[in-house]
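User: Show me a protein chain along with its predicted structure.
Assistant: Here is one chain, sequence first, then structure tokens.
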Amino acid sequence: MARPREFDEEVVLDAAVQCFWAHGYESTSIKDLMKRTGLTAASLYNAYGDKRAMFRTALDHYIENSIGTRIRHCEALPPRDAIRAFFDDILRRSLNDRECKGCFVVNSALEIAPHDAEFRKTIAETLARIELFFLACVKKGQADGTITSSRPAVDLAQHLLCVLMGVRVLARARPERALLDGAISTALTSLDDR
């Protein structure tokens, strides 16, 4: 029978996410992970396998606890408010990111996805999940008249996803409220009848 873990996995995974997020996958060492999580190398290897497996677990943890939570929260709102709330949260996170770390998923898409089919698939599925959230909101908004029906719902959802990705990348180098809010506001006006 396997021994129960003698650490709070939520705390360890949060620390691992922060470590990988701050340094990137390639630049994060087991020593960095030990320092950040407070675990020994043996404990890390016993619990997660190797660095790659720990990154996989940390990325999944981030996706569910950040993106998944945001989507679940916003889904409860009226469609147009849901989209606005999603972007408001992104804007707030971007402007409060003193280290300009950006988005862990976007960073992983740029660093790892081009070279690793498994992580490319995970990131593509995550981006598709966000797109489906936008698509569901747009379709509901088109049905209740709060979002224009003059453009296909899928086009509007994909546009919102592209703006989101652009905002997250811009926030790393130019975390300026006017720039980021301007991009978001312009994207939201695309939902209006013309």
